[in-house]
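Can you please make up a whole protein chain along with its backbone structure tokens because I've never seen that pairing?
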Amino acid sequence: MDLFESSGVDASGVPTSERGPLAVRMRPRSLDELVGQSHLLGPGSPIRRMIEPGSSSPSSIFLWGPPGSGKTTLAYLIARAGERHFEEISAVSAGVNDIRNVIAGAKYRLAARGRETILFIDEVHRFSKTQQDALLPAVENGWVVLIAATTENPAFSVVSPLLSRSLLITLHGLSDEDIMTLIDRALVDERGLNAKVTITDEAKTQLVRVAGQDGRRSLTLLEAAADGAALRGSSAIELIDISQAADGASIRYDKEDHYDVISAFIKSIRGSNVDAAMHYLARMLEAGEDPRFIARRLMISAAEDVGLADPSALQTATAAAQAVALVGMPEGRIILAEAVAHLATAPKSNRAYTAINEAIADVRAGKAGPVPLHLRNDSFRGARDLGYHEGYLYAHDFEAGIAPMEFMPDALIGRHYYEPTDRGYEANITQRLTRIRSILEDDG
């Protein structure tokens, strides 16, 4: 039996069951219905060449992107374009024998009927090296067209020989506008909710947030919320229905709240109130705020508010941002909480922040002037004849490692920007900077 039939989709890749989940029923049937990924669909792009009518034999491809970004949909559309046979296996449950059986069938189909086979493998990063190696002959000889989907970077999870024989297509998470489009379409489409229910603006905004750039999740939650509204005897989806569908309390969190809560979050860290900072972190996470956005703001806070009073704070914030991107949610909340605790309880200094602001203000005010001759680049012929480098003192030739000469342009001689505090590690800098400036500014 054709796998399209056994998996609930017809030979064109369109779901046949009207009783399937909303996300399956609403799967796009053409490029025109595809939402998001506009960067992949320009004229002449590999994906468009594979899907448009009259397309030639497609290349094997790896689709790398977050959950719900359209990887499976693109596989169906490519299969539909050439009326190709479609086989789908999951790397979670398939073994080497399953792969070999699919390849054997594909070879027979190609030889007997000249019909190509699309082999779609979901979560291919879960395949072992042996399982991936089993695919190599089929891909290299064109017995199957491999379309492999993964949420992890194929460079680290796929064997090089297999990756080198395929195109790598990177998908992005759906934008808020994309999710809105999916919701609006599902509400009225006859394959979806067929205009039998509506949704309030507040509920829709919350649904977009909790969907987290995941199109499939947005439709799954929409369907569950519609069922919840029906149980209440209502045809309108409200905030409480989204809350129950998402298995959590949906707090009010619109665009204004987005700015207000992040402001309170950063100000709580700056004010060293770790408990308030944790509260606002929890509010953002529960409201579906992008954890990567929170991590970016922590890096800024580490540099702006903690500064050199605790130089390790920026290291913690940066590590947290990288870890959250790798781990994702819900475990990412632990990483963010650790970074918040570090920053909120650390000694604070904004002196590096104010130093660069004052320096930029002087530059914008025209207080710059030419670079002193002894500091200029002298690597070109004739530079020394112009006086470049003359009078330059090499810092390592001096006992303190400090060259007693002028570094500022004439217009700014004696101008100080960075004035460290006596808090945390910066207290050590204060002592050392006092000595440095006494040497640099000593006329003797």
User: Anything to note?
Assistant: Residues 155 and 163 are 8 Å apart (CA to CA). The chain is about 50% helix and 5% strand.
